[in-house]
Amino acid sequence: GECQRVAVARALINNPSLILADEPTGSLDNNNSKELVNLLKDVNKRFGTSLVMVTHNTLLAKEMDKVYLLNDGRIIRTEI
Predict the structure, then answer these.
(1) If I label 12, which of 40, 45, 49, 78 is the partner at 20 to 30 A Cα–Cα?
(2) What angle (nearest 5°) sits at the alpha carbon of residue 48, between those of residues 75 and 26?
(3) Which one, of 49, 42, 46, 47, lies nearest residue 20 by Cα?
């Protein structure tokens, strides 16, 4: 979990215009997952940073503004 949080801090330090997050909460417990998601959403809203996240966690996906479900490399739905 610590490595995951350090990686996020390094990614945010230069105020990027785009964050690509591949399973960002995969190695975190529930509390740290919620904190990380809240941080990413706050960065998105406060600084206008675009956020593209890949996850298998449907609860996490439901918290995002837009959701695209893929099956065999094709978009099959745009909502959960």
Answers:
(1) 78
(2) 55
(3) 49
Please give the pLDDT value at position 17: 94
Q: Helix-strand-coil percent breakdown of the chain, rounded to 5?
A: 40, 20, 40
Cα torsion 67, 57, 17, 73: sign: negative
User: What is the structure's pLDDT at 1?
Assistant: 66
Number of C-beta neighbours around residue 26 at 10 A = 12
Q: Quick check: 67 and 74 in contact, CB under 8 A? A: no
pTM of the model: 0.78
Crossing angle for the helix pair 2-12 and 30-47, to the nearest 10 degrees: 0
